[in-house]
Write the structure tokens for this entry.
Amino acid sequence: MDFKATVGSIREFVDKTNLPQQVRDVDFPGLFTNPWFLVPLIALACYLIYKKAFRDMIILGLILGVWYASGTPYMQTLVVNGEVQVAKVLPVVFGGAAVLGLIIYLLLGRSD
């Protein structure tokens, strides 16, 4: 299977599901006051503390941080009129590489 076909099918899927619009429309204050979201999140945090799985808590925090950062106004200005703003993309790329490197280190690094 060819790379362009794969990227094209992924792009069609994202366009069909309106995923970027759904991420933009997330109501963060409403989400963190909704008990259907908050209770399982607190239960997961308590369970991870009980199991002393601090590595997993750090990874979960990093994932939630990346999810939050993806919805910021800064991310919305990375592409203007169909053109990528290289000066704005480079910090995102290096930040993403740092987060990914930290997660890989936490998963594959030496454990105590």
